[in-house]
Amino acid sequence: QVQLVESGGGLVQAGGSLRLSCAASGLSISMYDMGWFRQAPEKEREFVAVINWRGGSTYYADSVKGQFTVSRDKSKNTVYLQMNSLKLEDTAVYYCAARRGQLSGRLSQRNSEYNYWGQGTQVTVSS
Question: pLDDT value at position 85?
Fold first, then answer.
């Protein structure tokens, strides 16, 4: 049974940092692209970042480029999202997701292309 468990969310002041973790079980992150998405109140879920299954290459939404960093620890089967210089608009529930790695190396921003999802962790940025 596949499980993705996010942790590390919380309340932080604007300009602060948080590191989210996504611990995977039932699958190997070495075989899956691991993505982060977020959903703010009354908004659709949006892509944040993804790390490639094979070489660890990454891709970010324009809104977080240079601010967030996605990484992984294969030995712990865990993916991380380091979030710096947090802004009020970063407030959302953050979700970890897994998508079977593609031989083409193509990364996806589409929710529908991800096979497994975590339950989410709340990040609230205050002024």
Answer: 98
